[in-house]
Amino acid sequence: MKVLKSSIRVPVRFSETDAMGVVWHGNYLKFFEDAREQFGKDFGIQYLDVHAQGYFIPIVKSEISHKASIFYGEEAVVHIILEQHDSAKIVFRYKVINDTTKQVAATGMTMQVFMFVSDRTLELIKPEFYKIWEMKQNWIDA
Amino acid sequence: MKVLKSSIRVPVRFSETDAMGVVWHGNYLKFFEDAREQFGKDFGIQYLDVHAQGYFIPIVKSEISHKASIFYGEEAVVHIILEQHDSAKIVFRYKVINDTTKQVAATGMTMQVFMFVSDRTLELIKPEFYKIWEMKQNWIDA
Amino acid sequence: MKVLKSSIRVPVRFSETDAMGVVWHGNYLKFFEDAREQFGKDFGIQYLDVHAQGYFIPIVKSEISHKASIFYGEEAVVHIILEQHDSAKIVFRYKVINDTTKQVAATGMTMQVFMFVSDRTLELIKPEFYKIWEMKQNWIDA
Amino acid sequence: MKVLKSSIRVPVRFSETDAMGVVWHGNYLKFFEDAREQFGKDFGIQYLDVHAQGYFIPIVKSEISHKASIFYGEEAVVHIILEQHDSAKIVFRYKVINDTTKQVAATGMTMQVFMFVSDRTLELIKPEFYKIWEMKQNWIDA
Fold this sequence. Notes:
4 copies of one chain form a homotetramer. By secondary structure, chain A is α+β, with helices and mostly antiparallel strands. The first copy, chain A, contains 3 helices and 8 strands; from the N terminus they run E-H-H-E-E-E-E-E-E-H-E. In chain A, strands 1, 2, 3, 4, 5, 6, 7 and 8 form an 8-stranded antiparallel β-sheet that branches. The longest helix of chain A has 16 residues, at about 30-45. The interface of A and C includes residues 22, 59, 65 and 66 of A.
């Protein structure tokens, strides 16, 4: 599969831990969001660029598999990969590494679709601006 | 001082605790928000009513004093009071009771102002709809 | 499949919305948590009961599929079902209804495992207390 | 007043915005937390160092004054100052700059106290380790 890759270091906030002393499971979706931000910066396709084209790109599906905990004081590194798809959806895969223990803390996936800002209806085919952006990228084998 | 009063019971979410095993301090601002919601319902002045009048009412000041912890599994009750003021600001005071221990967990204050949705500038005098709402209320001594 | 069911009404907090004006996707995991809490109360198996038996029950897998948005001012109702499994895992399925529009806003799943509080290692077989709890329940067909 | 200073750049997460399109007011306490983290790293007094000495340092008071909004896509820089006090409390002051508009978005304060991890009672005098840490610092005029 052809992919584009990026990664980001995420320090763990105290407020993100829970009473088990580790990062609360739901906060991994924030780490995924941080990784998408970094990806957007690296490849010139940030959320606001997409918005300027008249689209929201809401998350329609997300999955997280937790393998190991991240304790307060530890750092996470999130690796993000964009998969190439023919249909009008944006699928990212994630691997969260506990950079202190070097263990895989979690893996995950998010799927986004294109929605018109104007009337919040779904765009069923790939928007032109996105196809152009895709063509310009230097996709590599995963 | 003349006030209007309300209160709400808030169960403590696991995700709201931190690695000290208690509610993370910043989450009290969510409890305050819950109390404002309840107040809005009780007195017919919800956020969306205000928005329909053309105003945002952003928080411009907030204060929290923590007196005791709330552990996971305990319940909080938030008491909220609206103070009567002449100027174009909305001042609520809060008391958060740990309903399991009956201790005061925190007290606090928020101040909101009126901002035009249209251009996000400040409204310096009390909007007419708000003055009318105030007049209809049955204010009591604090 | 044999299941146990519960449900809970969840008012949408303003702080839970995002710049698209709807509930931020990650916050559905908090709604799922609220539903597990309610389930625990209804069936006498709350987090702290489990903890008292010497176990954490961390989430090892979660999935959310978003079908429709929930705007601020709308209310969600979360339906939760516990599936009966032979292995040492706890699998809940969720359906989040936007109670204002009556649309299904999201469906989801979480899987939890048993972990010893003492050394944070995994318990690979169903703990005795949990088997006893399961036996006492009145499972119904899904 | 004698102080120690630090600062940190904080990208604004989409999940931290609200339905007004700006950073939700309560999230500034997370920015303050980020700044305390950075301060701890810069001056060799991180949360876990304090914990290793047998103390929690819970927030007992926090204040935020909001001056301007931060929109999604903008970056915040948080300046943090530790004030020198004789009593057993830790007082930080904060200034949050919207680095895109160069406006002051907020100012704030937090007060922390020393609490024994062992029994969660308050330490009323400055712990020895903290006095030693204070003496080693090169305090400057605010």
